[in-house]
Each structure stands twice: as structure tokens, then as C-alpha cells.
Amino acid sequence: MLTNGTNDIELDREIAKGYLYVNTGKLKEAIAHFDQLLKNHPNVLAGYLGRGSAKAMLGDLQKALTDFNLAVKKDSKCGDAYKRRGQVKLALGQTQSALEDFNKAIELTPEEGDCYRQRGSAYHALGIFDKAAEDIKKSIKLIPGDATLLNELALCYNGMGLVDESINTYTRAINTKEDYVEPYIHLGQLYRDIGCYVRAKQLLEKAMKLAPTNHLSYYVMANVLASAGRHKEALPLLSRSLSICPPERTGDIHRLNATACLALGMNRSCLKSAKLGYEAKDNASWYFGEIAKYQAMMIDKPFLEYDLEWFPPQWKVNFAKRLPIGNVKKYPPGNVPLQITTEDIDTKTTVKQELVKELLIPAIKVGDKMQYNELGFGKNGRQYLACGLGAICIAQLLQTKQMGWREIAEILVKFRQVAEPADGAIWIDKLPRQQFEEGFGSNTTLKTAQTRVARYWPMFPRTFGLFKKLFEEESGASKEKKQLVAKAETVDEVQKVLKRDNFFMTTICRNEEGTRLEGTWLLIEKVELGSMFSIKTPCTPKRYKIFDVELKKALDKYYTVQHSNDQDKILDAVLRFCYLWFNFMPLTRGTAGCGMYWMFGLLLSAGFKQVGVIPKGFQCDWEALLTDNQNDYITKMKSWIKLEKCSVSEMPNVLNSLPRLRDMLMALNISPLLVPLS
């Protein structure tokens, strides 16, 4: 039976002919055909629907909308007209209005599965993932066996951060239609996000075979490899992705290519990709081109002279926040990155085998103990190697002299910066004075609106529980409010009780004597679709001075036991220092990683290597943030830490063996040969 037919045999034949043009991609012929039909029969609903569909498929959305408006006027009881108009409105970004049309379509045709699907798409676009999932489920019941619907349902679960449900539903989509490429790509991306790189690679390789001209497969695969520290392996995939991607959509690909080249020391290639990314409207790409110029200036100078703090303060703020470049494109005199004149690193060259055996492999064995056993923390050999080299480096320096905590930290941060240049680990106290005084700080989100952040969600129950405990004990709120917050099961419920756009409780952090220090903020903020829950650690001048004193005291205490060979006293002193460092959070990013560098480096300097494996669900930085005193933190850490005797004096000296920035990058570049993808 002809959809929206007239029961006039000849007229319906003409309508069917127009539909055939649409369904076979002959869109211009379809429009011409329906133009003539409507000229002769201006009240035929199917003519407006068919012509509007052809115009929409050609991308002429406004003219398509006009036709669907006319269709609704011709027959206000036609659910199909509302549905098609809603689809065009959704494509035009008129999401709320599209939702109203889909509601009307469902009211008129409640058994039409595609109406629920389209409304689900509108809810998804608005970030209302739970309602989107409900609609897609209804559509699946009405249209069973549709792999595309299962893929869309999985995307809803993914939007909510429901990892298991997402994996199961993507897998159902693949099993329903094995040659359907989308769920392979999306599931590969999800496995990348949770740190399961081998499984991600398997799925994306399958996607490439199924659809060799789909640029996303190559881009996501490159992202997987870059996340694992395998930047060189990512480059040919990015090249392939760029060769088949529409030019206007290449911004993200150029940026990833730029950051991969930057990590490898291929500064000219980085600069070229950064410019192309910026031209493709990717604002962040520009910054990496500027870093490439600076890196080229420094590449043959001593590694310890490399310092991202060379960039002007406001530049670093914009870089950290990925802000538009307008007010930082012009550099102050004497602080301008020069054009590249130094030689790029040849990724085919490598370091001497003797150095690999005597320094790099031992460094990997130190650094791989930083690995968290949690979703979202994939194994990254480059990070392991940077951690190990940084730890051995400061251990060797501290064998011959005592250094201040900031002097040591400046060195460790350099290792963190070259481990992954895209991260931008920047000292907050070296940002503009206004930003420092206002408390610019590290911010980690656990939940925003309907989305759980999988990487940190395991920390949510304790963090939310601590917020409620602190609210009860320290907020000064009324008894009624305290009771309501105590009973609340969700962040949204708490936000409704508080009736504030933002509200925070500050965690308790104590020094060894038990004096309370300012911890981190447990912050609830109102957002468009509910609330956001995060931790934020504002680093103000006052707070910096307090932690400066405490870190100095803690390091001085370490020095008193450094050469004692007393394992228990040494470990206590190291963990007291790390507890303070994690709570301090002096960097825009990378404080947690540098905390592990600190731990391993101080232990090595005292003659011990940490060989214990961090247990599942345990994150050293979060334990420090959520534990209100040092002794309890030490007890928790000692439950898994194991120490072995180790002499760094028997290893090649890091700064003598890898004296230049070029040498350090070349060493990091071979990490994929030492750590397999997992």
C-alpha cells in the first residue's frame, strides 16, 4: 500500500514514481517530478513529503522545512509530516522544536517505531540520555532486529557512562549485523577510553576491513596508539584518515598528528599539522605548533634547560584552558619562538643497546609500578619510562646533595611534560598573578548532568559520602537542610536542597603534628540538565605559602632518615611528603603522575625500589585527598607497597647518558619496543 496515497490510481502511480526517484538517489529528478505533480495537484500531501525529503537529502534543509510546514498545514493529523519536519529541525539545530514535532508524531502514530527513534535522537542531542534510551528501547520492540537501533541505544548508555551496558549493547549490534561498521568503531573508542587497547585495536582493524574508506576507524585507532605512548605507530593511520576525511572535518586529526609529532621530536611536521589544524577551525592546534618552535630551539641544549614556563603567563592560561589565541598570538619582546632551524629527530635512529639494557629497561621496571588497576588507566610505556627516568634522575642527584622540594619538583615536571606534551603540566604559581590569587586550580569531574566519568566513578561513593559528612559537621546549615542532604541519594537531590548555583565543602588535610590544612573542594555546580560534581583544588598564594612550609619540613625529615637504611622510617617519611604533594596540587595537570615520580625517586635515593602492585580500586592521589590524616594514609599505602634493595649508583647517570632534550626524546621514543600494547 502506498504511504500517504490518494486512492487515485493514476495519481498514486505518479507519487510512487517520485518516491522511487528519492529511494534510488535521483534527488534532482525527484524534485522536478514533484514540482510538476504539485503544480497540477497542489493539495496532494505526498508531493510535499516526497519533495521535502529529496531537498533534505540534498542538504537544502530550509527549503525542506518549508515543504514539511506545508504538509502539516495540508493535514494536521499526519504523523509522518511531523516526524519528517522534526528530523529537519533536528538537523538545523532546532532541537526543542524538533522534540515537539516528534511528540506530536507519536501521539498520532503510537505504533510507528521510527518516531520513537527520532525522538530518542532529539533527547540524545540534548544530553537527556535516559529518556533517549527509553525511546530507543521502544523503537527496538517495534522494529526488532535493527542493528542501527542497538548501536544508538549503546550510544545512550555510553553518554551516561554506563560501561558494561554500552559494551553489551554494541556487541548485540555487531552480532545482529556483522558487516555494520559503526558499532565496531564506537566500541573500539569505548575500549580505548577505558584503557583496553588490544581489544580496541582488534575492533578497529575489523572496522577498517569492513569500510576501508571510513576515516574514523583510522583516527580512533591512532588515538588508541597515542594513548598507549605509541606515537610513531599512529602517524600512518592519521595520514590515511586525513586522505579520506572531508577537509572541513580534519581539525581533530591534524591536532592529534601535531601532538604525536611533537612527542617524537618531529618539530617541523608538528608545526605543519598545527597550522593545518588551526586552518580547519581547531583552535587548540595552534598551541602545539608554538611548542614545536620552542622545542626546536631547545632540542640540542641540556635537558634541564627545557621549561614550558618559558611561555608568557597568559599564554599558559589559554593553553591550559584551550582558549582562543587572540590575546596571546603576539609575544612580548625577547620571548618569541624562533622559526625552526634545528634538525628534527629521525625516528629510525635509536639509542645504544647498552644504555637500553643498563638504564632504560630498569627505568621501565621502576615506572610501571605507577599503573593504576582501574578503568580508564591504560598502560603507557612512554609514561612508565619517563616516570622511571625522572625517579632515577632525582635519586642520583640526591645521593650527593640535598635539594629543596621546588628544585626537585621542577626537574620531575620536565619529565612529565616530555612524557606527553599534549597534557601541558604547568605550574599554577607561574600563571598571571590574578589567576593565581583567584585560585586557578586542578579540576577533576566525577559526574556532569547525566554522565558518569568512568575513570573516576569508582571514587564517587566515598567522595559523595565525604561531602555529606562534611556538610553535616561543618556547613553551619539548618538542621532540616542537614537531614535532607544526609538522606539524598544523588548529587541532583543535594543541589535541589542547597538551591545554589555552586556550593563546596573543603576536605580535611593535616600535617604530621595534626594541624589542619586546606584540602580540596568537593564542588557541586548547577548545570543545564542537573548538576556537576567535581573536585577542585584552588592554588592561591596563601595556600601555596602554607604547603611550601609543610613540604620543606617533610623533605627535611626525609633527609634525616635518607641514609639510615631503616626501611620503615624511610617509607613513612616518603609517604608523608607524598600525602602533602597530592593534596597541594600545584600543577594545572599531572600532579598525580608527578606524585608517583616523587615516591619512587625518594625511595630510590634511600636505596629502595617499590615493587608492589597497586590493587584494583586504589588510586594513590585520591586516597590522599579523601583521608584526613597522614597516619591513616600511610597505613593504607603500606597495605600494598613492597620494597626491595636497589642502588641507583650502579646505573648509568641519567643526565650524563641523556644530556640533551634530543637524547631524552630519543630514549622515550623507543618505549614501544620495551612495553607491549595491552
UniProtKB/TrEMBL annotation:
It holds the Pfam family TPR_8. The keyword Hydrolase does not apply. One of its GO terms (biological process) is negative regulation of DNA-templated transcription. TPR repeats lie at residues 11-44, 79-112, 113-146, 181-214. InterPro entries: SRFR1-like, TPR-like_helical_dom_sf, TPR_rpt. Gene3D superfamilies: 1.10.3290.20, Tetratricopeptide repeat domain (1.25.40.10). Signal peptide: none annotated. The keyword Kinase does not apply. It comes from the Eukaryota. Keywords: TPR repeat. SUPFAM superfamilies: TPR-like (SSF48452). PANTHER family: SUPPRESSOR OF RPS4-RLD 1 (PTHR44749), TETRATRICOPEPTIDE-LIKE HELICAL DOMAIN-CONTAINING PROTEIN (PTHR44749:SF1). This is Tetratricopeptide repeat protein, tpr.
